[in-house]
Structures are given as C-alpha cells and as structure tokens.
Structure prediction request, 1178 residues.
Amino acid sequence: MAWERSDMDFRFTDKELAWRDEVEEFIKRELPPRWAEDSLSWPGGYGIISIFEEHLKDACRDLWRKLGKKGWLSMGWPGWPGEKYTHTKRAIYGDIMSYYGAPAGNIATGIGAGTIIMFGSEQMKKEWLPKIADGELSFWLAYSEPNAGSDLASLQTSAVEDGDDLVINGSKIWGSGAHVSDCAWMVVRTDPRATKKYQGITMLIVPNDAPGIEIRPLINICGIHSFNEVFFDNVRVSKKNIVGEMHQGWYYLMVALGFERLAVPLGGFRRTLEQLVRYTKETMRNGKPLSKDPLVRSRLADIATKIEIVGKFYWQIAWKGDRGIDSETDASIAKLVSTEISKDLAFAAMDIMSPYGQLATDSKWAPLAGRVQLGYLDCISALVGAGTNEIQRNIIAQRGLGLPRGK
Amino acid sequence: MDFRFTEEEEAFRKEVQAWLKEVIPQRWYDLGPGIWEETEESWAISRTFQKKLGQKCWLAPGYPKHYGGSEMTIGKQLVLSEELARADAPVSVDTAIAVGWVGPTIRLFGNDEQKEKYVKGVASGDMVFCLGYSETEAGSDLAALKTAAIEDGDEYVINGQKIWTSYAHYADYCWLAARTDPNAERKYDGVSMFVVDMKSPGITVRPIINLMERHSFNEVFFDNVRVPKENLVGEKNKGWYELMIALDHERSPSGGAAGFAKTLEVLVDVAKKRQIDKDPNIRQKIAQVAVAMEVSKVLGYRVAWMYSKGLHPSYEASISMMKASETLRNQAEVGAAVLGPYAQLRRESKWTVELGVIERMLLSCLSIGIGGGTNEIQRNIIAQRGLGMPRQKM
Amino acid sequence: MDLSFTEEQEILKKSAHDFLAKECPKKLVKELDESETGYSPELWKKMADLGWMGSVLPEEYGGSGGNYLDLIVLLEEMGYNILPGPFFSTMILGAIPILQAGTEAQKQAYLPVIAGGEKIFTMALTEPSGKYDAAAVTVKATPAGGGYVINGVKLFVPDAHIADYILCVARTKDGADPEDGITVFIVDGKAPGIKTTLLMTLARDKQTEVVFDNVKVGKDRILGEVDKGWAIVKDTLRKAAVAKAAELVGHSQAALEMAVSYAKERVQFGRPIGSFQAIQHYCANMLTDVDGARYITYEAAWMLAEGLDATKQAAMAKAWVGDASRRVTLLAHQIFGAVGFTMELDLHLYYRRALAGAQAFGDSDYQREIVAQAIGL
Prediction:
C-alpha cells in the first residue's frame, strides 16, 4: 500500500549534498595544514577559539578573504546581491566549518552585517558592508560591563553628543578578540535620563584605533588570552557610526539575538565524538580496548544520543528559517542545549580517559593532545558566556512559554 | 567521633526487633508493602499495631511518661525508628503527624484539659487525627488559608474547605488551622488552631482518588460546623506562631533511611535472579543508589545527633528530608532498570516481583518531595536559613 | 553516637585553618603550582614544627600519638585552603604503610624523620593502564645479588620528583592469582636508574612518570613480606581514597562559600542574584552535596580509625565525594558567571583539583564496583 501524501523527510536534497561536498573540498584545501588536528578548541567553549587568538590572527584573516571571494561571508544577508543561500545551506556550511574548526566568520559578518542591513542607513551599508563581505573587517562585541552582565540594560558606558561626534567614556569587559579585531560593535548609553534603562541605549561601531581606547588582556582559566577589559577615555566617534537611530540600540540588540540561532558547533561535536570513539578503540586497558568496556560504551552512547538531539534542533531551526517560521526562543534553546552538551562531552571524555584526561598538552602521555583538560575548563565558558544558561532558561520560559516575569 | 550506637542502644534494638517479630502479623507482609490505609483490613491491622505501640509507650517515645511517652533518649528513639522502618511496620503517616505536630503543639500551648485528653490520646494510638491545613488556594503558601472560624457565644462556627486531607475518612479528630481574624494585616496573624470532632454536624468528607488509584486523601467541607470554645488550642490568632515554635521544638529523629536497606536487598536479589548482576552498568546503578542511601542515613544521623546535644537544626532537617526524597526517586529509577519490564507489574499481577514494590514505588515517589513541604520550599529554607541568602521581595 | 570531633580535634582544625590562611595564601598556591617542586620548604618546616607530620605517629617515633581521624581533620582544612606539597604523599603513601607494616628497624629509620619533616615519601603504584587492581601491577622486581632489581614504568605518581623515598609496588612473582606475588619496596628517590618526569596536569598537581631502569634495592627495604605486599597496597588505597575525599570536602566547602558570598553581593536587575530562586536552589543543592559528602567521609574515616572493616564505606565515600565535588565546583562557576572564567578568581583552582581528586586512587566508577561487590552483587 502506498500513501499519496508527502511525508516527513530527514534527508538532504542532491543539491544540498553537492553543496556540502563543495564546502568541504574548499575548506580542506584552503585551511593551513594540520589546522583541525592542531586546534585546541573545545566545541561550545568560548575560551579557545581561533578568531580570538593573537597568533592565529593572520591565518583567520587570510581565510576570511578567501571566503569573502566566494561570497560565503555574506550568505543570508537579506537583499545582498549574488547567490541566495537557504537557511539549510547555511546550516550545512556551518556544520562543515565547525567540523574543521575553521573560522567561518566573526561578529562583523554575523551580528554586525545583519543589523546594519536591517537598521543601518544607506550610507552605513555602503561604507561597511562591502568590506565585511570581503573579509577585510572584523568586529568584537563590546556589550558587557563590570556592573552589567546578565543585566546588560544597566550598562553605564556613556556617549555624549558633541557636534558631529559622540564622545565615549566608560569601560567594557569580556570583549573576546578585542585585541585582534578592527572595530568594536558597541552599545552605549546616550540618554541617561530615559525612564526605562533599556531606552536611551545606542548601538554604534567604534574603530579600535580611535584615540583613547586601551585594551587590557584578561587571561581565562584555560590560560589563554581570549578576552579583555577595554577602557574608553574621551573616545571620539563620528555620529555616522551610529547604527540606525539613536536610543534604539536595545531593540536592535534584541533582534540581533535571533541571528545566533544557528550558532551551534554541531560539526565540532561530531568530530570530538569521533576522536573519542577512535581513542577508545585504540587504547587498551587490561588487554581489552576501552571501547569494549560496558561503562564506556554506555557513556559514549549517551553522548552520541545527545549530540544527535542537538543536531535535530539545529536542522529544525534551519528548516523553520526556510519556511519563514520565526521563533523567539530558537536561539536560546540552541545555545542552552549545545552548551550543556559541551559540558557533558567534556565530563564524559574526562571520565572515560580517567586518569589520563587531566594531562595537559605538553605531556607525552596526554591523549587527544591534552585537549580534554582544556575542554573540561573551557566548557564552563560555554555555560555562562553569550548569555548565561540561566538567562536562556528565563527567555525560554517567558517568551517561549509565556510565563510571567518576576517583579 | 563515633558512628556506633551504644551497647544499651544495641540491646534495645534487639528488644525492639524481637517484639516486632512477635507483634506484627504475617498477614501484614502478605498483603504487600506500604498499604496501611488501603483496605479496611490493612487499616485495622495498622490501628491494632499502633495501639500496641502506644501501650508500650513507644508510639510517642519522646513524650513525658505522664502522657504515655517513655521519655526515651534520642539515641533509642533513633533505634526504634530505624527498626520500625526496617520491619516495614504498620505505622501510618497520620500517626507521625499526630505525634510530631499535633501532640507537641498541644503540649506547649494547650490547657491542662486539652493536654490530658489529646496528648494522651495521641500517644496511646487511640485517637486518629487528620490535618486540616492545605486549601485549594493555600498550599506552599499555607498562610493564605481562608477557612474561617467566627466566634458565636460559646462556640466557633467554621466555614470553609480543606484539601489533601489524608485519612479524614478514618479520623476521630481534625487538627484544623482556621482564620479567626479575617482583617489581620499580615496573613500570619489571625490564624488559630482547633481540635474538631469529625463527627460534628456539617462536616462532609469527599474522597480524592490518588494516582495510585487509592483513597488516602480527601476534600473536607465545613458547613457551619460548631465547635466549642474549649477546642481552641493556645491563644486566639496566634496559631501560626504556635505551629512554628512547636515544629522547632520537636525532636523526633528519623531513622527512615533504614527502610531503604530492604529495597536494596530486593534490587540485588532481582539482579541476580535476572542474571544481570554482572553487568557493569547495572552494578553501577545499584551501587549508586546504595551510596545515596548511605548519605541519606548519615544526614539523618546528623539531625538526630544535633537533637541529642540540644542543638537546634535550622536547615539540616530540610536537607535530610530532601535527600531522602531524592534517594527514593533514585531507588525507583534504579528499580526500573533492574527489574526491566517487571517493574511495571502491579501487586495483583501473576508475574509480579516482590509484591509489586517497585511499581508502587515508581508512583509513590511522586508524592515524596511534594507532601509535607515541597522540595522547592525545602531548598528555599536551606538557602535562606542555612546559607543566609536574601529572600526574594514579593 | 557522637558526630562531633574531640576538643583537641576542634582546636587542631581551627589552628590549621588559621595557619593555612596566613601562611599559604592563594598567591603562594599559584606560585607553587607554577614551580617545579610544587612545595615551599619554609612552609613545610613550619608544618613539621606544628607537629602535623607527627599527628598520626606514635610518640615513640616522634609523633603525638594521634589517629587517622586527626589526619582527616588536617586534610579537610588543607583542601579548604589548598596546600600544594607532598604532605598527602608523605603521610598517606609513606608514613601510614610503614607504620602498619614496617619492621621495628624500618619504623625507627623512617618514621622519626617523617615526623620531623626531614624526608618526603610517596608510593609508586599506578601504571600506564591507569587501573587499581592487582593485575595492573606489572613493574617487575627480580632477585639479583642478594637484593632485587626493579624494571618498569609507573605513572601518575604524586611528588616522586622531590621524594626522598619511593614505595614501589612491584611484581615479584607471576601466578594464577594476581594478588599473590606483589612486593612493596622502599626505594631511594634518587637511586641510580630512577628517572622521574613531571606530568603536566589539569590541576597543576605534581604527578609524575617514574621509570625504573635496573634499580637495585636491598632486601632490608622490603615492606612487609615478599609476595605478600598486596594487602598493604589495598589498605593504603582505601585510606588514600578516604583521605582524598576529606580534601575534596574541603575544596567543595570553599567553592560553596565563595559562590554564596558572591551571590549575596552581586547585584543585577536591582537585587542580589542570591535572591533569585534558581540561584538559591543551586546553593541549596551545593550545600546538600557538601554536607552529605562530609558525613559519609567522616563515617568512613572513623571506621578506618577504629580499625573496622571499611571496605564498603570507604568506596562509598570516595565515589560520592568525587562526583559531588565536581558538581559543586561546576555549580559555583555557574553562579560566578563570566568572572569565574578568569585566572584571577581563585575558584578554578578548586574546580581543577576536584577533578584530580575524583580520579585519584580509583575514580567513582571504580569505587562503585567495590560497592557493588560489597552489597552482594
């Protein structure tokens, strides 16, 4: 008996498969040799990412230019000339790039460009977008302040109008990659007398070389310099650098959160799982490979299942995007689920490799080049960075389920 | 430091074990685990047993001898509690409430007549109390209760409704929290405690069938129920504080964790019978629950030890309760893993394992961590009283 | 039942707490972590002067005649403060085995110098297999010239690079039963043929690789009897597991306090984040974990101090505390948010050590298998 209607189909189309092959061939060719093998990144963590690291700065820019030439940095930019890429194609691209640990983009190509296209003036679009699309520009996110973390709307860094300029005073913290980027993508307070704290916030672009900016490194618990404290002392910036309208910054920021929907390192999870599986097959304990140990099998099966579930979220978000189905909470769910996997994966790797997982990169006995102990540390950043998981849960509960906000 | 019981306590343990063997009828065990209220027969067995406990002055062992307690030391109370749990003795929840909450409050705040009548009644096992606390709009926020008690001459007239009232259908008395001052500024003021004869006209008990398809709790309606003024316990409008103080004073150590040991045996036995006892995953799961039980046990010991030293647990009892509930849930989960498909079989089923103890546990564990103070409330207490964390402004 | 420490133990606890806070601040901890030796000789001497090394040793060997519980009191405080150095190795992996199995001559030779803080000890047990059962012992000791010659590789050996003496667990006989044929040798730490390499670890604790290349050792250096050493090792493992659990309890307590303190101070959305239910519940969960960990450790420690069979309890304690301390330190990080992800904040020191401690002397899976056996599976 055959059913007449068309059913659910989890397969990719031939075109999509061809696209995947194209991306994979390209990235394998263009990445520096041993890029993926030597990467110390842990999928989901924010503390050890190539685009934030000094010594990889040139390599990243190099790749961005190449990606820019292919038009791939501007995939999904609405109204941008050139080929149109569906959400699914972009998701495929992201998955492959993540698998190889490739720097697929930066704040400029993602949040920055998207926001400029939606809200920026024509002049801003003309001035900034081509350079971003070409891979010539990178931004760092200047959001958090010492007293404005989860409660970002209480930010204090001020920008005062002075003729054609804004004069900025204050400081930002946790700016990942500020030291290797060209400009700050920043939110400042322009109306200190606004009745509600999220009114009176303006979004703007501030070049790093503007006088008065001091970038001070912070070392994260992995021992890596990824983020910074940045001080703004009477920094002058043209009003032309304001994104959209003055005082509308919070609104743009909220909209921009949606751009993060597909920021899930699915390929990275897959790769790390593959490495773990290979490790257990190659490592003997008491005359048997670890992969035959029932506890190891059970644990890996659990992780594999979780990664599969993250994948389901990921592809569904892409599918919804292609059908114009929007969801206020997709970004939060994606972030929550994938960061929890990041942690589960690190804990599982540690337990399976016990006691070897603790060994650091310089140790000859360290499995997986000592990445596991770094991942065990870095997964913490996953749980609290880019919006803590508590905040994500609040968003899901309030916006997704309509639960009331606490007073 | 010494985790042992004293020689005297161990001798007492033997005495209790022997007595329980003698007194608990085999029929009780044939009927199956934890079903004291389910049928008339099981209820009757449990009432008989409790009266015997009362006769030995072991039902409320910490009470003064005058009221029918035995002024037992904390150590011995702990032993007694452990052995009752271990033997799965027919001690019903209503007794624990009567002994733990009702008796102590009346002892502290009741007049002589009330103490003579009710405290003795509680300690002897002759009186069955139900707890008239929760209402449809007053659960975790109990102080929001609305059942009213209005003075009228020599009596109070009670109108309102209580819910989740366990054993109201068997109870002789209701230990009722009612609002005597509807205009009190703070909801905690204006609450009074009453002993209400369940035979009073105007009381309707309506069963609520729980998700184990059993009748244990009820809705209780009060329709112009007249209660003599003598039945008000303590000071009018001060009931809430009386309750809190009595709870703080109460010193009944819980040896309930000893009851876990039996379940652990079941898990090990079944694992062997099903020949999965060599499976490392099963071993890990069972071992994990064994560890959780041990942790639960020592946390219970800590509370008992504090009582014995005259120390005042602030959050420790909450931790103990919460841990016990988590352990029970964990047990049920592991039980399901060990029994496999047999876990679903009810007691009456042909292939049932251990009289359906796991199937029952899978359902009953849902009420643990909710009744008697939800785990969320417990965690609030632990955080605020134990760690000094600030209260949320409401 | 008495769940309190003695008055002397309370005094020891408080004085250790205060001493460590003053003499081993986090600045020193970090310096020692970065250093190669991983300990401060000045601090070591002060500890010896306080009698800490002698706490568990009988008076006739220069100690103060205390018991295993006294050591646990100290170790919990050391965990709370973090004390890098070979105290654990020397006492648990050196002093106690020698005290329990040594000849009078050996006790006279080694215990007083331990009590005086003059010598550092450790035990080389684990091998590349990473397992803790008898079959995992493959380093060989072959009879030669009136003594023995040891060959093989030991791994994850704490403090071997600074040890004056290494108790090497070697196989002297192969047979049907792997537990038969193991011998413990007290080897000079710098004996010819010994090569130690520091392993770089997550916790920056000083774990080493020790290669034994034709290392000669005399018969007088055998601890206990030839071929009968496994009993000593088993006992040491059990005591080490519980001792490590005590340290982990200290780590967890510190992490909890830091998190709670921060939650009370950190204001967001116009109020301390500690007033949010989610945060409160995390803290409550942490406290539950810490208290449970503490008491199950004390129970096991007390049983060991009393000479009771603590096979089950010790395994339970280590299994539970290992997992609990990892949970607690992770939750603490969660509460700290981004600030917790910096080197500057001390919290990550506890997170790292929680992992190292959980995996030492048998991880939670290993311990649970022991529990499984103990409950009749």
The mean pLDDT of chain C is 94. The first helix of chain C runs from residue 7 to 23. Residues 123-228 of chain C form a domain with the Butyryl-CoA Dehydrogenase, subunit A; domain 2 fold (CATH 2.40.110.10).
